[in-house]
């Protein structure tokens, strides 16, 4: 007696979906706008592998990794984030670099979600990593780049949330105490545009590259992302 007939599975796996032509064109347009903006600040594109080794340093959210065993028995996972992949790449390939590294990316990342939530497990992640330089100038450069990137994508009313108040105070230090207080209260709606314009003028950024910032070579000797100034935009597929 033959096995019962099974209809073919036509839908993608849970948490994944097809990108149809209209949305695919929109995503390509966004990627193009972001790539042009990243390049204008002197950032160059990279594309790390989609699969990375799972180690003890894989982060506190290891339970969200989409992991599996490779044929050689090693534990690997679909990349959950680009920053950690860049940290590994820098430690491996650019340990002896003597200048600031400006790296950019636009690529999918993957994160496990509980089945009951019905959440997506594939995201597009765009961002930059400024490796080496530190301090207010580096912070301001990445913030200005983020602001301009959002504006180029049509998100002119976007709110940028900075997780460290010290970064905000340093970036807007020249505005004076009252102006800085207004920024911290979210009342200075044009502060981001002021920062972006001022930073481009101060750094003399052009499509040919960016101004030199001092590099602490010890930052390149660690695979941790702590030495990175990072700006990331995530979109659900």
Helical fraction equals: 25-40%
CATH architecture: 2-Layer Sandwich
- The total count of helices amounts to 6
CA radius of gyration is 21 Å
Strand order of the largest sheet: 1-5-6-7
CATH topology: BirA Bifunctional Protein, domain 2
Largest sheet: 4 strands, mixed
Distance between the termini: 44 Å
CATH superfamily: Bira Bifunctional Protein, Domain 2
**In terms of per-residue confidence, which ranges show pLDDT below 50 for 5 or more consecutive residues?**
202-228
Q: Structural class, judged by helices and strands?
A: alpha+beta
Task: Using the alpha-carbon principal axes, give the shape.
Answer: globular
Mean pLDDT: 77
Task: Explain what this protein looks like in three dimensions.
By secondary structure, this protein is α+β, with helices and mostly antiparallel strands. It has one domain: Bira Bifunctional Protein, Domain 2 (BirA Bifunctional Protein, domain 2), CATH 3.30.930.10. Helices cover 32% and strands 18% of the residues. The chain contains six helices and seven strands. The strands form two sheets. The protein has a four-stranded mixed beta sheet with strand order 1-5-6-7, sandwiched between helices. The chain has a three-stranded antiparallel beta sheet with strand order 2-4-3, with no helix packed on it. A hairpin with a 5-residue loop joins strand 3 and strand 4. The longest helix is centred in the first third of the chain and has 20 residues. The chain is globular and about 75 Å long.
Can I get a quick summary?
This protein is of the alpha+beta class. 32% of the residues lie in helices and 18% in strands.
